[in-house]
Amino acid sequence: MSAPEENGQGAGEPGGHGPAAERTGVAGQVAKGPGADPPDADPPGADPPGAEPPGAGRLGAGPPGASTAGPDPAGMDRAAGPGVPRRSPVVVIGGGPAGMAAARAAARLGVRVLLVDSGAALGGQYHRQNSLAGRDRFALPPGVEHLPHSVVWALEPVPGGGHRVHLRTGPADGPGRTGRSVETRALVLATGAYDRALPFPGWDLPGVFTAGAAQALAKGQGVRVGERVLLAGTGPFLLPVAASLTAVGAEVAGVLEAGEPVTAWLHRPADAAAGWRKFGELAGYAALLARRRIPYRRRTAVVAAHGADRVEAVTTARLDAGWRIVPGSERRTPVDAVCVGFGFVPQLETALAAGCALDGGFVAVDAAQATSVPGVFAAGELTGVGGAAPAAAEGEVAGTAAARLLGARAAPPAAALRRARAGRRFAAALARAYPVRDGWRTWLREDTLVCRCEEVAYGELHRSVQERDALGVRAVKLVSRAGLGQCQGRVCGPNVACLTGVPDAAAFARRPIASPVRLGELAEPPEADPEARPQ
Amino acid sequence: MRRRRRGPEQGGGAGAAGRAGSLLIVRVDGEELVTESGQTVAGLLLALGRVSWRTTRGGGRPRGVFCGIGVCHDCLVVVNGAPDVRACQRLVRDGDDIRTQDGAELPA
Fold it and tell me: What backbone torsions phi and psi does residue A380 show, to the nearest 5 degrees?
């Protein structure tokens, strides 16, 4: 047991170890009022006041800058302090399209930038580089310090304004990583999103992957996840995965779309117009499917996987409009791998640790990508899923706003603002065209695992929630164990929330320890920080 | 048993890798293998034809890669005596000793 995240009583819950747990444990989503603004914090970015993000609560009543003692989200005295110095760097978390664009934009304005990324090379999931190729497709301007192989495991506010970001750098999950804390007044969160997987009987068998896994292994490692692979789920992002799989020599047995996207787009001409640029790309993928004779079926899903110790076959079925199985439509198909993706879940840990307000499960931002928390910006899939180009536009806006907050003089990035706005419309249209329908619950059997880590089956979840009368996320986790395992509810959270009907599903993403650290790392004395102040 | 293989032959990226990737020697469940830098532990194991390398704590069920991007923690493996290492996130290094993880293991 090295990862302290692993059990429910440990650091994964508020009250655990580490500096972050103390301060951000209960902070959750309570938005800080304007009273918490540092005195020199102008409204960041291009759009002046009035651009408050939806859902940004105003708890404090004092005039901006009147006091540094704002409402105290953690329930303890946030003593006024000098805050983080203004000459601090912009810290960007995430090296995908949004994070790279943010770093470039801020550096162009002469501001120092630290870009923290867990990957070996820049690009994130969208532009994943083959890490065996040894050649970097992306370059960042001087002024950007790129910290690869680095995870943010905690984030805490600094009294008086700004945030302290706790990092570990080194071989993933190894005991020998180096600790470092950096302070910033302008934080850009670009942590992205990951595939949502819906449970079905047999989904825990080796050989069932997310679509993102197939993509990452094909593009990043040149490895195919199987010889004969079926793709299933919903959304246009299944198509590039089919292309990547064929590029590494896998036979794609089919792409199964659970929804009815054509009808959805036709019913909303305005949405289709918002996405017209994307349709060219989709047409390219459609041509590839036709050329390779890969069947594309709508209203169809993989509803079971079969095999003893790995996938040998799957059952596919037609779905009705609510995603219930059409009786008699089940077919068995031999495959050695199946890849599923039902939209995306944003990586919310750092945003929630900062106390950012959410809107519809994503981070709420204004036109300048400012979150509800002063000095914290968000860009890319954290704010909605629209693809790489809108993410990069949002990143440019966020990087510019962050640099302005630190005193750089810059005109509003008009073109990027326009592209970001269009991207937001497209993301909303995508979400409407590819909804996840409730009928997937009927695919489950009593013994179908819902939580893969703690091996909690559907029947067990149902019984424990019923018998123990669990009403909130915390209670559901404690009575059922779902979400208490190694992944801390990253995979099962949205599904368990759906199955149990708990409100505030995002509470599953509240993880004071944002990324696993080993107990030995937590036990290390805090690294010397010359700028640290006594509190 | 002391089979030595020259990298994984599966997949399209292997050609490009040959130029840049320096060769490394690692052990996988006691067996010595030649691979190249830039490969993740998960990439190496899958290229060897393995789909699982961990058993679950409760049911003892086999697991391998699921999400592939460090989120799900299904692909845990023991590297140089340290358990709970995500195989999809960890790049192989020369001399690494990679081992299947059996349930919940304590560090060596």
Answer: 85, -150
